[in-house]
Design a protein that fits this description.
three-stranded parallel beta sheet; about 45% helix
């Protein structure tokens, strides 16, 4: 069992449309899971441009002229977040094995009852924090927090192309779900803000979904 996967006793829930839009980039490498809203594709495209520039990654704007632009914006942003988080995790692994200050800081973030915290503290107490064994241990066990997504089910308005109504799968929430399903993420969808049977049945179109847990 990987004890680092559940190293923390909390996660960061979705907060509005924007407050947790980039939480995984900020905290996932510490093993902290968070939920981001994927409802506002305009905001998501702006965030993709911002973080692509910040991390010197390729960026090509997805405009409203692109086919299925809502889903494509969401997919590419989630893929970008996934790429950045994976890179930060690898960097953090190196820092933990090479820098005692970083290791001390990470230990301070963990709950006192954490088995992980006790193991890492033991490495320090025994003067082993810079050994190959520690490097191997961190490399094998350190996993990022989950990058879960939230879809507000009632934010599912019909969309049009030159005054012609598009099929239901191009509605906002449907497009959000499709963007997530086609992304590289292996995580969960949190549905909120009411019932939407059409959206729920749309899950059946994607083989990537294993199960849905309904919470009242």
């Amino acid at each position: 069992m990987n004890i680092l996967k559940n190293a923390h006793t909390f996660h960061i829930p979705v907060m509005g449309l924007a407050y947790t839009i980039d939480s995984p980039i900020r905290v996932a490498h510490y093993g902290i899971s968070s939920v981001i809203s994927i409802t506002d594709d305009e905001l998501i495209e702006k965030m993709r441009a911002f973080y692509s520039k910040k991390f010197s990654l390729p960026y090509q704007e997805i405009t409203q002229k692109c086919y299925d632009y809502r889903a494509e914006r969401i997919k590419h942003y989630l893929n970008l977040v996934d790429t950045i988080v994976k890179d930060k995790v690898e960097h953090f692994k190196h820092e933990l094995a090479q820098n005692k200050t970083t290791l001390d800081y990470y230990i301070s973030l963990l709950p006192n009852k954490s088995e992980l915290k006790n193991r890492l503290q033991k490495f320090i107490d025994e003067g082993l924090q810079m050994t190959e064994n520690v490097k191997k241990y961190v490399a094998e066990h350190l996993l990022p927090g989950d990058i879960d997504v939230n879809i507000m089910t009632k934010v599912d308005k019909d969309n049009f192309d030159k005054n012609k109504q598009l099929p239901v799968e191009f509605n906002d929430a449907h497009a959000s779900l499709r963007g997530f399903a086609n992304s590289n993420l292996n995580s969960s969808v949190v549905l909120s803000a009411g019932m939407n049977p059409r959206l729920y049945s749309y899950f059946e179109q994607f083989s990537t979904f294993i199960r849905i847990k309904m919470v009242s």
